[in-house]
Amino acid sequence: MTVYLDHNATTPVRPEVLDAMLPWLRGGYGNPNSTYSLGQRARAAVERAREQVAALLGAADASEVVFTSCGSESDALAIAGAAWQAHDETKGRRRKIITTKIEHDAVRVLAGQLRRRGLEVLEAGCRGDGTADAGELTAMLDDATAVVSVMHANNETGVFQPVAELAAAARAAGALVHTDAVQSLGKARIDAKVLGVDLLAVSGHKVNAPKGVGALYVRRGVRLAPLVTGHQEKNRRGGTENVASIVGFGLACELAGRELSAASAHALALRGRIEAGALRVRGARLNGHAELRLPNTAHFSFEGVDGHHLVVALDLEGICVSSGPACSSGASTPSHVLTAMGVPPALANGSIRVSVGWGSTDADVDRLLAVLPGAVERLRAARVPA
Ligand code: PLP
């Protein structure tokens, strides 16, 4: 039996989500852009899903939701699309992107690419508790700033970022504000209007919908240079819509919204047990702010242990956790997030992230806590002194 404690990497598709998708992969295969009824039924299903996603994001109107293929694409459409649009509209005067050192690679790698293409990119640092340095970021703002991108909650530590505060300052400087809320969706309340952002990225597979579908909230009136050209999604993202996955994503958002309070209470209870047990292990510490975190995420460092080895040791016992972001696991360099937080490299390399979610049980936690202390001690004993 697999004990899955890596819900920040991806999540299982809920059975009711799969059931809602299947008709659109069978008889309901019409193209939502076709005029005849087979197509129009698919169109209606896509538009219903748009409303379901919009409701979970706090959008004023469903038309503010653009469907994409994933969170990474949503981030790219937001940041590159807003940056090039502002650059072109101001004849190159607004050419600065401000972000932080703790963003997901979907943002960091894109920012590097935009820098190589001639835009200016600045990254604010973060504090020891994992929150971005709002003062440093605010001081970077000026009338050349096109876009500010700050994640809503960090994927490794789960720490919430001061998005609303930064959004107010950035918008006062005339910049557009994007937040990568991929990890927060379904785990914390998100309201684009309350946050005061112009753009907000989310992804289906983090909220018990399938992989291959995402969405970008685009505040009404905000214009973006599209990455994929075409007339779909009101000219903002070309490509025939992924109807079945969009339907699944919509239902997953509706369920997540309905269950948010109960799910976060459940996650907090499980996480509390995980933290109490893990921190009893000699030389263990918790990374990130003690409270201002996603309720489902705990990130630990264990002195004298390699995090990748610990992940493998737990995997041999049927337990899935991660030693960093899933997409970069296997890398031996310490996480850029922990480095930005000032965690020493040896300790950063001895880290694991445990994230609970839909379907996680007390029995999962019992199994983790039964195995973890022994696995840490065995790895320490096997370590060849440097
Ligand atoms: N942003 C954050 C914060 C993430 O955690 C992830 C995925 O882990 C992404 C973006 C990318 O999302 P996707 O896998 O849907 O491209």
For the record, what CATH class of the largest domain applies?
Alpha Beta
Q: Mind describing the biggest β-sheet?
A: 7 strands, mixed
Question: What share of the residues lie within helices?
Answer: 40-55%
- String of helices and strands: EHHEHEHEHEHEHEEHEEHEHHEH
In short:
Helix content is about 40%, strand content about 15%. The protein is built from twelve helices and twelve strands.
Describe the protein in words.
This protein has helices spanning 15-25, 37-57, 71-89, 105-116, 134-140, 163-172, 192-195, 243-278, 307-316, 336-340, 345-348, 362-382; strands at residues 3-4, 65-68, 96-100, 120-124, 145-149, 176-180, 199-203, 214-218, 284-286, 297-302, 319-320, 351-355. The chain is α/β, with parallel strands linked by helices and 386 residues long. It has two domains: 3-9 and 260-382, Aspartate Aminotransferase, domain 1 (Alpha-Beta Complex); 15-255, Aspartate Aminotransferase, domain 2. A seven-stranded mixed β-sheet has the order 2-8-7-6-5-3-4, with helices on both faces. Strands 9-10-12 form a three-stranded antiparallel β-sheet. Strands 1-11 form a two-stranded parallel sheet. Pyridoxal-5'-phosphate binds next to helix 3.
